[in-house]
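subagent[fold] <- orchestrator: predict structure for attached chain, return tokens only, no commentary.
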Amino acid sequence: MEKLKVNNIELAYIRQGTGKPLLLLHGYPLDHHIWDKVTPLLENTFDLILPDLRGFGASSTIETPYTLDDFVSDLVGLLDHLSVGKTAVAGHSMGGYTALAFARLHPDRLTALGMVGSQALADTPERKEGRYKTAQEIAEKGIQGVVDMMTTKLSPHTEVQKWARESMAKQQPAAYIGALKALAERRDSSDLLNKFKFPVVIIHGDSDELVPIERAREMKSAIPQAQLVELKGAGHLPMLEEPEETARALMGLG
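subagent[fold] -> orchestrator:
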């Protein structure tokens, strides 16, 4: 992976393929490898840019609190470094929240949006409190409890669960803590949806236990031109569970 010094962190990334730029953002608490089954199917169509968001994978982080807007600032620094002015952005879960923050802050640089297992809503007060509680538990006891809790919720498929558990176990506690607090403080982006005039693709597993399929349908209702792809039997990781269908849907961002 290449690394870029930006905003007092080292942001690791991979760039591959040819075509229109497509920035692929992973979810919590994983890294760019969630896209490994999809990138070979997209690299002849897109100039793929796959970062590890701050703290995850090979990217470093800081101990002081940060927000999804800071994630976006990291990404803009990366795009500037790569001389990419405008790009499509597709994000999974937390990556989708980051993509929406990108759309709010830099609408002039966004050509298309992909939302994968994600939503526009902010946390409820109860969910927000739960994230801070989990962050405190990680600070005191480490990540194993979260890894155990999330494994079966990420996918109904045992082989995907095994992959996810191994990937989550590799991540740094500081990344978990920083991301949980950033997620807890994210804005509701529902007000953005009916302003989008560019292509929007929404991909969601109908067996997603972490973000209900209803959230995807609500986004579709708010974005007339959006394409909604519901993947039967898929959970929260459709790019690993149904890579061909996920890639086919993402082609709509070109």
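orchestrator: received. Logging for downstream: The chain has a mean pLDDT of 97. The radius of gyration is 17 Å.
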